[in-house]
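quick one, 153 residues, struct below
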Amino acid sequence: MIEADLRTRPRSDNGVLSRPRRATTGTRARRPTGVTALLLRNLRRTPPAALEWQDARLPVLGRLWANFWLPSILLAGCLVAMVYLLQTSGVATTGYDIQSLQLQRDDWQLRNEQLHFELAKRRSLTWIDAEATGRLGMVRPEPTALVYLRSGR
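---
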């Protein structure tokens, strides 16, 4: 198209292309009015044919995916991050609970050992003797005193 314009353009005397001359009739170029102006405005508003062809070619779900793929990927990434954080916090909470229960177990084991020691102490003959003579006021029998008991037969 450019070559055709170059061939038909007038040349000056020295062979250089010159600009086309305007009509000098004294009238200005008129803007189109009416139906022609309406058609020109509508032509300017229509999208290029390539975009119309792409939209017409894609099914509805394809167009939805093409328009919303980035938000969908971002939403999926946020969901994955939230699940990861929930799992991590759950593991940390469980670890804290386990540590607390281990401390309680150690305390109960110590208390159990103290009770076993107390039981063994109270079963010993020396402690029984000390309690009988000290707290209850009992006295030891004399070694020479013999007491005979008769049986009921």
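The first helix runs from residue 2 to 8.
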